[in-house]
């Protein structure tokens, strides 16, 4: 590892995190595939098993519309969903600070239980550790998930093509705005966008090429990730990217980049041009803000077309917004 010390930027989902992962030099994958995607896959009979894991260190742990438990469940389930996998079960591991209020833990676990029962995705195993007071900031949650891609389905690994449309399933920045409103104590009616994408993916998985959920690093990170694995580019149209007025005001007030904000209940889909309208129509049943925001173009990299011209949208770098998911 070339870096002498790990910084907050190494966990923000941007360029530094990519470099850190590369520097680890992990090369043995066995028979597992797609290890650089939202979920790794393993051939299992005529289908494929999906496996993913994530840790949640969000601050604050309670925010408008959700909490760290709600976030952990949704984040792991969505990493399976965007691979077109049916979630089969998740694990739940808790690292808790000594003195943590039992009532707060009960609220967090109730959120997870409620989602588990609603979406019929069981919590099948887990672990609990307690750290001495002052050696941990309240609570850390780790969740892992397994899912199955049936033999009839292709994983979200099809190559994108010129003219394909880029579709966003709802407005950007609502999760980040809700959380930051508590961190920086400002008023907002925005609540987190955090939700499982099970039903949304079921509605579109037969008509899209691929899907990604814009969590750490936001839209900027995932679009750059997509083009880095191909020889073509993506152009999005600024006026077509949905974001609520209160989100735009918060972004301006805090001096942060809308395109780098984490979402926890949104997905970006890429679909053939002739199927794009059908994808949007299906997603609008769940969120009226779903729309086409751009297309696949010649060249490389990601660009944003504005009223004043076109500018590059780079991979996020630096701290971005720490501890948001």
Draw up the topology in text.
Blueprint: H1 15-24, E1 40-44, E2 47-56, E3 62-63, E4 66-67, H2 68-81, E5 86-97, H3 102-119, E6 123-131, E7 139-149, E8 165-168, H4 174-183, H5 198-204, E9 210-212, H6 218-228, E10 233-237, H7 245-254, E11 268-271, H8 276-284, E12 291-297, E13 302-306, E14 309-312
Parallel strand pairs: 5-6, 10-13
Antiparallel strand pairs: 1-2, 2-7, 3-4, 5-7, 8-11, 8-12, 9-11, 10-12, 13-14
Helix pairs in contact: 2-3
Detail the poorly predicted runs. none
Radius of gyration: 19 Å
The name of the CATH topology of the largest domain is Phosphoribosyl-aminoimidazole Synthetase, Chain A, domain 2
CATH superfamily of the largest domain: PurM-like C-terminal domain
Instruction: Compute the separation of the termini in Å.
Output: 25 Å
Give the SSE order as H and E letters: HEEEEHEHEEEHHEHEHEHEEE
Number of helices: 8
Kindly report the average pLDDT value: 92
What proportion strand? Answer: 25-35%
Helix content: 25-40%
Largest sheet: 7 strands, mixed
CATH architecture of the largest domain: Alpha-Beta Complex
Q: How are the strands ordered across the major sheet?
A: 9-11-8-12-10-13-14
The beta-strand count equals 14
Total of domains: 2
**What is the overall shape?**
globular
Structural class determined from secondary elements:
alpha+beta
What is the CATH top level name of the largest domain?
A: Alpha Beta
């Amino acid at each position: 590892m070339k870096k002498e010390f790990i910084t907050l930027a190494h966990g923000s989902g941007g360029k530094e995190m990519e470099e850190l992962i590369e520097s680890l030099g992990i090369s043995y994958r066995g028979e597992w595939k797609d290890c650089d995607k939202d979920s790794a896959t393993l051939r299992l009979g005529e289908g494929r098993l999906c496996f993913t894991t994530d840790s949640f260190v969000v601050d604050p742990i309670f925010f408008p519309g959700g909490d760290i438990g709600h976030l952990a469940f949704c984040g792991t389930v969505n990493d399976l969903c965007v691979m077109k996998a049916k979630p089969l079960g998740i694990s739940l591991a808790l690292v808790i600070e000594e003195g943590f209020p039992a009532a707060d833990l009960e609220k967090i676990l109730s959120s997870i239980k409620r989602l588990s029962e609603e979406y019929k995705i069981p919590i099948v195993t887990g672990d609990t550790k307690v750290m001495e007071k002052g050696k941990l900031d309240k609570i850390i949650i780790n969740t892992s998930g397994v899912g199955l891609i049936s033999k009839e389905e292709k994983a979200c690994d099809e190559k994108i093509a010129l003219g394909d449309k880029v579709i966003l399933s709802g407005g950007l920045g609502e999760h980040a705005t809700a959380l930051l409103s508590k961190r920086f104590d400002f008023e907002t009616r925005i609540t987190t966008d955090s939700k499982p994408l099970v039903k949304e993916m079921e509605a579109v998985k037969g008509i899209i090429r691929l899907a990604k959920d814009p969590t750490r690093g936001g839209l900027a990170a995932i679009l750059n990730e997509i083009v880095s694995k191909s020889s073509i580019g993506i152009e999005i149209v600024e006026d077509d990217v949905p974001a609520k007025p209160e989100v735009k005001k918060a972004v301006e007030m805090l001096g942060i980049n809308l395109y780098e904000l984490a979402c926890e209940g949104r997905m970006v889909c890429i679909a053939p041009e002739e199927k794009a309208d059908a994808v949007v129509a299906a997603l609008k049943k769940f969120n009226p803000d779903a729309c086409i925001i751009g297309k696949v173009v010649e060249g490389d990299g990601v660009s944003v077309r504005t009223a004043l011209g076109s500018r590059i949208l780079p991979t996020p770098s630096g701290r971005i917004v720490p501890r948001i998911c």
